[in-house]
Amino acid sequence: MDAFLDKEFRSKGFVVSSLDSLVGWAQSGSLWPMTFGLACCAVEMMHTGASRY
Length: 53
Prior knowledge:
mainly alpha
């Protein structure tokens, strides 16, 4: 992006970024790997953590 446009957008409160950077930022805070598991105990832990009651 042009440096002039980048400066103008930032001064108006817009976030200027590339799509790859934005997706990377979103994935860095994702909790999906914490609950990923194929064994029965992992499934039971997911049920416990996401219970309604």
